[in-house]
Amino acid sequence: MLSRDDVYKELGIAPAWRLRDTASEARAPVCGWEQLSDAVAHCTRCRLAATRTQGVLGVGDREADWLVVGEAPGADEDRLGEPFVGKAGKLLDAMLASIGIARGDNVYITNVLKSRPPGNRDPEADEVAACMPYLLAQIDLVKPKLILALGRFAAQSLLATDAALGSLRGRVHSFQNIPLVVTYHPAYLLRNLPDKARAWEDLCLARRTIQRL
Fold first, then answer.
1. Domain 4-211 - what CATH class?
2. A Gene Ontology molecular-function term (predicted)?
3. Which residues pair with 13 in a beta bridge?
4. Could you tell me which residues come within 8 angstroms of residue 105 by beta carbon, excluding any fewer than 6 positions away?
């Protein structure tokens, strides 16, 4: 996993926590949301830059306790520039509402990939690697108390594992000392309604975990 310094080196911007004593360092841009948003908007780190409409950074409370991480933008997200705005987004809103959370209020929502894969195909390893610095920078800026990983790709990317989703859910993991709970992606739940009960269990686990912090 990239270190904090590695993340900002990858993005070509200086981290806010680094003291800048020399004149040249003083002129280096400090990473904030404006720089990160601009970097995503103009990113050419992978082949998806050639096919996307726009980069999709994230949406919500930038000082939230909850960070929700999905897989990648879909067609609606690519068009509107906001994650989880289609049918899966409506289900995600309902899932969060079931544990007392409203979109934009104490929750920040993003994806591992910031660009839509053509035809909504699965992300490829080099695409995940290219986008990971952006996600790590978001985590560093938000400083969430808990991460909710939606679906196999988000879980595997954050936990650096190829384990199946079923073996990852139902317990609390740790990402850079932040509790992380894995559950199903809303798009999957739309096709597999019986697993909504298991997703509810995961949400309850996440809520209990954050209440104990």
1. alpha beta
2. metal ion binding
3. none
4. 61
